[in-house]
Structures are given as C-alpha cells and as structure tokens.
Amino acid sequence: MDTRRNLLKKKRRVVIKIGSSSLQHTETGDMDYIRLEVLVRELCNLKNQGKDVVLVSSGAIAQGKKAVHLTPEQLQEHPIAVKQACAAVGQARLMMTYQKIFAEYNQVTAQILMTRQTISNDINRINAQNTFEELFRMGVIPIVNENDTVATHEIEIGDNDTLSAIVASMIGADLLILLSDIDGLYTDDPRANPDAEFIETVEHLDESFLRMGKSTTGSGVGTGGMSTKLTAATIATASGADMVIANSKDVRIIHRIIDGENYGTLFLAEKQDAFDLPDFVENLHSCRERG
Ligand SMILES: Nc1ncnc2c1ncn2[C@@H]1O[C@H](COP(=O)(O)OP(=O)(O)O)[C@@H](O)[C@H]1O
Ligand SMILES: N[C@@H](CCC(=O)OP(=O)(O)O)C(=O)O
C-alpha cells in the first residue's frame, strides 16, 4: 500500500465538502436521502474514531429553488435577490434534514454561515476560529455554507470548494476531502476529451496541474467545475493539509480513503510558512478576474 495513502489514517481534523449535484437526484432535483444518510453515518463514524469533523455542504440554492417551484422567468427577473431568497429557504431545509439524520446517531450539529469578511476581518476570523474550537470541544459537528442570503460579489467567496479549503486552513485541519461528480483530477475534462488520463497523486501543485482545470464544463447544478477544486488544493496544501478529490457516487468512499485505499486524486500537503490566508482571500477575486 502507498505509504502516503496509509498516513491518511492518522488524520485528526477532517473537513468534508459535498456539492449540490451530489445531494440530489439528477432527474428530479429532489434530495437523495439515501446518499445523505450514508454521508451522515460516515461522518459520525469518523467522529467516533476521535477525529474532529466538519461538513461543508452546498445545496441551499438548488434545494430552495426546488421548494418554491421557481420558473426560469422568475429566475431572470431579479437574479441576485431570487438566488438569495432561494438560499434562505433551502439552507433551512438542508439543516432540518441534516439535523434529523444526525440525531439518529445522537450527534449534535451546528450551522456556520460565512462570507469573505469572516476571513479578511481579523475580529471576525478570530471569533469564527474560537467558535469552531469550542464546538470541537463540545463534540459537535459544524455544518458550513456560504452566507448566500447576504453575500453579493463584493463579499462572497463564491464557491464551496474554495470555502472548504479556507475553513480547513482556518481551523488547522490536516485533511480535506472534496466529494464531486467525478473520480478526481484528469489531465483534461474527461467529459469533453476521451483521451484524458486520471491522476492519482499530485506531489507538487504547479502551473501544469492548474492548467488542467481551465475547462469550463461542470455539472450545471453547482458552481466551479475543476478550477475551483484546484484553487482549494492550492489553499489546503499550502496550509499543511492533504486534499483528496473523490467521487460522491458512493459516499462510503470517505472511510475507504481514510483507511488508505487508492481512491480519488491525492494532493500532498506542502506547508508554506509564507502562506497568508487573509491575504489570499483578499486577492481571490482579482486572481479569478485575471484568469
Ligand atoms: N481536468 C479535469 N478533471 C476532471 N474533471 C474536470 C476537469 N476539467 C473540468 N472538469 C469537469 O468538472 C466537473 C466537476 O465540477 P462540478 O460539476 O462543479 O462538481 P461538483 O458539483 O461536484 O462540485 C466534472 O464533472 C468535469 O466535467
Ligand atoms: N453556497 C451555494 C453553493 C455554492 C457551490 O459552490 O456549489 P457546488 O459547486 O455545488 O459545491 C449553495 O449552498 O447553494
């Protein structure tokens, strides 16, 4: 067995991110309760192994749209306010569903909603860090999302891949797992290029890997495609966490990865003393705009 994979067993603080498309049935857009249940069981089991666990869950906007039966015309009218209203509805639904399922395992959860200011403002960031630490001491699993109801372009992080890496960096996590609709990183988007090859391990995340995420295709339900996952890998690995991108088709992949089995793409941590999270977050938008 690959010794670097085997070391994943020893991780103490794990952040797991699941995207909107992974939480719903493709055909109907309704919640996939079985997948949610298995996800919750996996997280509770990690917690029972003595690890600190954080879930970053997308899905507020997608579930909110579904709940209020939004027509495409309504979406066109006031896209930002409509999206924010949907997020307000969907976030409450998501939390209700998670709390119900976590309660079956006697697991207490908490909701943490963040914006870019949570990181860039020193007081907000320290408060958020203290809250996470207190929740871990209490044995609670925090469930994190962007505060979509108030976040507009000026203060948004914009996608939960990046958010999950920011959270991992902020709380000193040693492993981040991004659950996606694809097995991991390929040399190119395999949906567009049948010759794309799967990459098992990224030892050093240089330009050649970052270029592989430039294709703009994605599930159409969530945000980002592969490029936001590579931004997440940049933050996580520079902060000293390993990161894995893996397929959410069977969420039992979480314990298989942590047991050291060869699933997904593993990005190895390369802690950089010069990495400054607030500074990185401050420059996030200008970096994206420069492409
Ligand atoms: N180099 C690449 N390797 C793998 N997938 C890629 C790559 N470039 C683009 N993609 C696309 O990114 C998609 C995953 O992004 P997205 O749909 O936003 O995921 P999620 O909703 O799970 O966060 C894949 O389904 C794939 O089509
Ligand atoms: N914060 C948004 C999701 C943003 C996002 O990054 O979505 P996804 O690409 O599905 O992980 C929501 O909850 O709807």
TrEMBL record:
Instruction: Extract one GO molecular function annotation from the record.
Output: glutamate 5-kinase activity
Q: What is this protein called?
A: Glutamate 5-kinase
Annotated Gene Ontology cellular component terms: cytosol
- Which coarse location class applies to the principal site listed for this UniProt protein? cytoplasm
Family membership noted in the UniProt record: Belongs to the glutamate 5-kinase family.
Aspartate/glutamate/uridylate kinase domain mapped to chain residues: 13-247
Q: Decide whether keyword Kinase is in the record.
A: yes
**Organism of derivation:** Gallintestinimicrobium propionicum
